[in-house]
Amino acid sequence: MTSSNDGMTRLRTLVVPTLAALVLVPLFCGLGFWQLRRAEEKQALQAEYDRRAAAPPITLHAAPVAVEEVQYARVQARGVYETEYQVLWDNRIHNGVPGYHVLTPFRIENSDTRVLVNRGWVPAPPSRTELPEIDAPSTPLDISGTAVAPRVDFLLGELDPLDRAQATVWQQIDLERYAQQVEWPLQPIVILLDPESPGGYVREWARLDAGIAVHWGYAFQWFALAATAVVVYGVLVLRWHRRNSQTRGRT
After folding, report:
1. What are the pLDDT digits (tens) for 25-34?
2. Per-residue pLDDT for 197 more than 50?
3. Cα–chain-centroid distance for residue 120?
4. What are the tens digits of pLDDT across the range 76-94?
5. Are 61 and 108 in contact (CB under 8 A)?
6. d(CA 119, CA 126)
7. How do the domains of the chain map onto residue ranges?
8. Is the dihedral of CA 169, 175, 177, 182 positive or negative?
9. Half-sphere exposure of 14 (CA within 13 A, CB side)
10. The predicted structure's pLDDT at residue 10
11. Angle between helices 2-12 and 212-250 (to 10 degrees)
12. Rounded to the nearest 5°, which phi and psi values hold at 125?
């Protein structure tokens, strides 16, 4: 009777690890496959990014564009830079040096519509109380670049009102709030100015990446956790069998 009770006790020691394995292994595998599906979705998105980047540029006019149709597409426009309501995007790092991205309104020819153009990076002066010296061509220009729509998930604080006379420093670019502070129509995108287009600063834009590698990495982690759970459970079962065999040998 004692031997039977001991056997039941030893058997119960596997209940918790078995239940844990039955729950965790399918859970980890399910999360891994979900990340693989997300990677497939991002692959399709990356293919669309690449297609738009290779397509002929879209010419901007006065009519507002649909963001979803031009996001990450090549765009071009003719007009003139206007330095009023210019914005400096703070905390932009280039080669380890802090600085700003210069965003300047560009008035599209034969219209009152403007589009913000990110003209690139400039270094920050030694003192935070100073602003970099920036200028812009005053003659009509043809510009081209990539259309992006900056996304603001949350604001750490209120954005300062735009200053007509000098550049305003913002920590984030909020196009909706920008449009509310100016008197003219604004395209709902920002142009990342091509290096070949005139009137810019340092422009070393990173290739648009949909983030496929991130999901592959997460998938690997989840599958690795599932494999670890299987190995740990297998080790516990082997140890249980070894102890059980040794106990039976002594009885």
Report:
1. 999 999 999 9
2. yes
3. 19
4. 999 999 999 999 999 999 9
5. yes
6. 22
7. 2-47+213-250, 73-193
8. positive
9. 15
10. 57
11. 170
12. -65, 165
